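Below is the record:
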Amino acid sequence: QVQLVESGGGLVQPGGSLRLSCVASGVSFSSYAMNWYRQNSGKQREWVARINSGRGSSTAYADSVKGRFTISRDNAKNTVYLQMNSLKSEDTAVYYCKVYLNYRHFWGQGTQVTVSS
């Protein structure tokens, strides 16, 4: 059974940093691309970043976070990270990690990030 557990959210001031973690179980982690999404109340869930599997683990980012967020993975720990720097109030959201396998999307429960002074 695939399970994703996010952590690392919290309250941070504008301009601050947070690092989110997502630990995966029940999946051959190193074989799959991992994604981060976010959802603010009243808005649709928004894709944030992606890291591919395999050697090199190429990455991609939404324009809204490019240059401020960095996605990475540690296959030995079955963990994907999202380093968030220069946070803005509009980054406030619940952040989710997601994996797609066997024609299904699997989501974690989310972790709340609040950027406020």
